[in-house]
Write a structure and sequence with these properties.
The chain is of the alpha/beta class. It has two domains: 2-152, Rossmann fold; 178-376, no CATH class. The chain is built from 14 helices and 21 strands. The protein has helices at 20-32, 47-59, 69-72, 79-90, 112-123, 137-143, 178-183, 204-213, 222-232, 256-261, 283-288, 299-302, 307-310, 360-370, and strands spanning 2-7, 38-42, 62-68, 97-102, 126-129, 151-152, 187-192, 234-235, 248-252, 265-266, 271-272, 275-282, 292-293, 295-297, 313-315, 318-320, 327-329, 337-341, 344-345, 354-357, 374-376. Residues 320-329 have low confidence and may be disordered.
């Protein structure tokens, strides 16, 4: 059996099916999948690896997944549970999937990707480079492939394009719609944002399917996220950034003016905090389904709380600086956050919710499709 590794350097964060590397990867798999003597090497973690794994699963080929132990622990405790995860998240055929776990320890976490990549190169009989960054890791490794008697098939290679996806948005100079601001006084608001990952409860194969099929617009934008919520008539709880990784819905009592001031770019996560797309639900209804106001306190105080109490607390962001007696205060308290455990089913309050969009064109579309009162955030 010939082991084949299809490799890509890191690509733009929010691709579509029109992206050159994605099309070329698909072409390579489609061409090579007809050879029953091939085993395709795959992995997890980076989008390029996971997109390739999704496409290999769709092709129904034999796959060998290589991970370090630290990488495996991100999604499963052991190989048995990893098999279940892969079958569910990527629709893999377990009978045609092998798993190879490479030992590494806690001290090697930051280097897990390179350990995995080198293992893939050593395992491969043939390398299929697709989109490779100049002077990067993969280019250096490819230059040494000949010395290892590893074949390199350049048929599917495309130029590497450094695409800067526009993620950072600035709303500081936008004029807020005063009528919308006044209308929302008795509502709690759930703001959305563009997602770099699968939506809550979404399988990874669904996420990569939609990326592959999209030709113009990124299918996990804040506006598409809003439409998904309305289509399901449900705000799904997310465990991301929540205490104990518990799925919860985040709401805010902050005014429209205060909320827009919190729309900032978070470089650490490569995303906006929130974007001007939201669902506003009556305050009374929110409380009736379990919404509770968040208590902001110091990390010292939080240590004394029970597991359940911690679900409804947040650090106040005050940390003592080492070189002065001043405090650096984060904006957490300004969020005026409320949380609901689990999901919020909107069916019983459907006629009372208010939808918020950035533009009037988007508002008109929402009203036409869903028949809901829709207001614009900006005048």
């Amino acid at each position: 059996m010939q082991h084949i590794a299809i490799i890509n350097s890191r690509q733009a964060l929010r691709p579509t099916g029109a992206s050159g590397w994605l099309q070329a990867t698909s072409d390579a798999i489609r061409t090579l999948a007809t050879d029953s003597n091939c085993v395709f090497i795959a992995s997890l973690d980076e989008m390029t690896y996971e997109m390739t794994l999704y496409q290999l699963a769709q092709a129904g080929v034999t796959i060998e997944i290589i991970l370090t132990k630290n990488q495996m622990k991100k999604c499963a405790e052991d190989e048995e549970s990893l098999n279940r995860y892969l079958a569910s998240e990527f629709k893999l055929q377990t009978k045609r999937t092998r798993i190879l776990i490479i030992e590494d320890d806690e001290t090697q976490k930051s280097n897990s990707s390179h350990i995995r990549d080198k293992a893939i190169l050593q395992r491969a009989d043939m390398i299929i480079p697709i989109s490779i960054r100049s002077k990067g890791f993969w280019e250096a490794e490819l230059s040494g492939a000949a010395h290892r008697s590893t074949k390199v098939d350049q048929r599917f290679r495309v130029p590497y394009k450094k695409i800067q996806t526009t993620i950072k948005q600035n709303y500081e100079n936008h004029q807020i719609d005063l009528d919308t601001a006044a209308y929302l006084e008795n509502y709690l608001i759930h703001w959305t944002r563009t997602s770099n990952h699968p939506w809550p409860s979404e399988k990874r194969w669904e996420f990569y399917r939609d990326l592959s099929n999209a030709q113009t617009s990124y299918p996990r934008s804040a506006f598409f996220t809003l439409q998904r919520i309305l289509s399901e008539k449900r705000i799904r709880g997310s465990a991301r950034h929540m205490p104990n990784s518990t799925a919860m819905v985040s709401l805010t009592a902050a005014s429209l003016f205060e909320s827009v001031s919190l729309m900032k770019y978070r470089a650490r996560y490569r995303e906006m905090t929130i974007e001007p797309f939201a669902i506003a639900i009556p305050h009374e209804f929110a409380v009736s389904v379990g919404a509770r106001r968040i208590k902001y306190c110091s990390t010292t105080e939080m240590k004394s709380f029970s597991r359940e109490e911690k679900l409804f607390t947040h650090s106040n962001g005050r940390t003592k600086l080492s070189d002065s007696e001043k405090s650096k205060v984060a904006a957490w308290e300004k969020e005026q956050e409320w949380r609901v455990l689990g999901d919020i089913d909107l069916k019983s309050v459907w006629s009372e919710i208010v939808v918020l969009t950035e533009s009037q064109t988007q508002a008109d579309e929402i009203e036409k499709v869903f028949g809901l009162k829709t207001l614009t955030v900006f005048a």
